Amino acid sequence: MEEQDYSDIEETGRELSDPAGPLPPEGEPGKAKRYLVWLSEIALTLLVVLVLNTVVLRLVLVEGNSMYPSLHHRDFLIVQRLGYRPEQGDIVVIKTEEDSPLGGEQIVKRVIAVEGQTVFVDYGNNTVTVDGKVLDETYINREEEDPMGDTLYENTAYVVPRGHIFVLGDNRNHSEDSRSADVGMVSEEAVVGGVWIHIPSGQWLN
Question: So what's the pLDDT on residue 29?
């Protein structure tokens, strides 16, 4: 009986069981996909920062010395916006009216009184009284001999209307605030927010 040659069949079997060439690694994204993922992560990060800075918080640079010694020129402030309502003693950032002499610039002041309260400023005695109580103002600039008397203002009583606040700078002789017609009583709607964190970084920027 003639012996059959199975060499071709065995060779064919080896070819089927060992396909030519290695398989590409699974789950490895291509360059284009990696690039899109990278861009998406950057866009998401920027969106979060934008929302935080416009809705929740805001970073503000102090310009000028009207709040000295509490704040210094070119200090940074992180301001709370979302859900904030001004209270007496708070330091706030205010957006002035575009058509005012201040031209829409942001100013930083301290809340002395809120709606319904009566303020009396006594320049002779360097005191501020709210609803008959003299404020203990340890924060004002007392480096000057007369910390409130070196101004053109006269002793005046103010009644804060509804929805407004009365603000002063801690550096009383060098502050344009609610005593001035250019600022006056500040609408709560003009309050950008209250100072949450003070970063005294002016020494890095001078």
Answer: 56
Residues designated as active site: 66, 109
Q: Phi/psi at 4 (nearest 5 deg)?
A: -85, 140
- pLDDT for residue 39: 81
Q: What dihedral do alpha carbons 98, 100, 101, 106 form, nearest 10°?
A: -50
Q: What are phi and psi of 16, to 5 degrees?
A: -70, -40
Burial profile 82-102: b = 16 or more Cβ within 10 angstroms, e = fewer: eebebeeebbbbbbbeeeeeb
118 in helix, strand or coil? strand
Report d(CA 109, CA 86) in Å as an integer. 11
Q: Tell me the sheet residues that pair with 57.
A: 80
Give the dihedral of Cα atoms 110, 122, 155, 172; nearest 10 deg.
-40
Nearest to 123 by CA among 103, 151, 85: 151
Beta bridge partner(s), residue 122: 127
Q: Which positions of the chain have pLDDT values less than 70?
A: 1-29, 49-55, 202-206
